[in-house]
Inverse folding.
């Protein structure tokens, strides 16, 4: 609410990139900031890249009404439009209810993979400090003091064929070199089979011993 009040006060737009909100595993869905916004200060971005596949290249914008014409023009200039056939098939997929069924199914698979990565981490590292595990397609692991820096853990894991990423490698910066960014790792799980997840975590544990 503070962000929205600020945007309204200074005449700014907030861009809300809600790219993985289809995947929430615990509790009720989170309200989008755009949904709280009565002053039309939010430009909302959604995508089918996570729920269907990035190769589809279809996403969407919900913009304040005064920006609608501009958004359409800019999009047309950018790439001369999007395949109408892909969009028509997607529209049918949505309106038939098949997309909702698909999401339900994928959510179950990803929830189970999320549970798997958490239990594998606990099995090897004890009472782990994680965040972001209520939804999305990755978790953040905040390293205990006894383990080295995130970049060292990342390199060690990579040497053993496992890709986990310090925030910097995931192109997230806080520019302050805070313990949060130096000692946090991003672990993606959505694209992996549970067997691969268990194997990956076990390799990291063995490598760090
Ligand atoms: C932060 C973020 N926003 C949005 C997207 C989706 O991008 P696109 O719809 O262009 O595939 C991604 C994809 O990984 C992402 O990481």
């Amino acid at each position: 609410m503070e962000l929205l009040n600020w945007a309204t006060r200074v005449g700014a737009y907030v861009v809300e990139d809600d790219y993985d909100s289809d995947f929430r595993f615990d509790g009720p869905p989170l309200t989008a900031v755009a949904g709280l916004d009565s002053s039309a200060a939010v430009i909302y971005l959604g995508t089918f890249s996570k729920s269907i596949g990035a190769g589809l290249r279809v996403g969407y914008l919900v913009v304040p009404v005064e920006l609608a014409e501009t958004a359409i023009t800019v999009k047309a200039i950018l790439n001369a439009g999007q395949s109408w056939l892909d969009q028509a098939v997607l529209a049918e997929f949505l309106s038939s209810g098949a997309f909702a069924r698909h999401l339900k199914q994928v959510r179950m698979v990803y929830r189970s993979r999320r549970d798997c990565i958490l239990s594998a981490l606990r099995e090897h590292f004890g009472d782990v400090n994680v965040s972001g595990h209520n939804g999305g397609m990755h978790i953040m692991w905040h390293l205990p003091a006894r383990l080295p820096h995130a970049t060292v853990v990342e390199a060690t894991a990579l040497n053993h064929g496992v890709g986990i990423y310090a925030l910097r490698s995931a192109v997230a910066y806080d520019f302050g070199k805070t313990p949060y960014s130096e000692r946090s790792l991003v672990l993606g799980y959505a694209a992996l089979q549970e067997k691969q997840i268990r194997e990956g975590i076990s390799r990291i544990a063995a490598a760090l011993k």
In short: The helical segments are 2-10, 33-36, 68-79, 84-95, 98-125, 150-159, 179-182, 194-208. The CA atoms of residues 136 and 185 lie 15 Å apart. The chain has two domains: 2-96, 100-208. The radius of gyration is 20 Å.
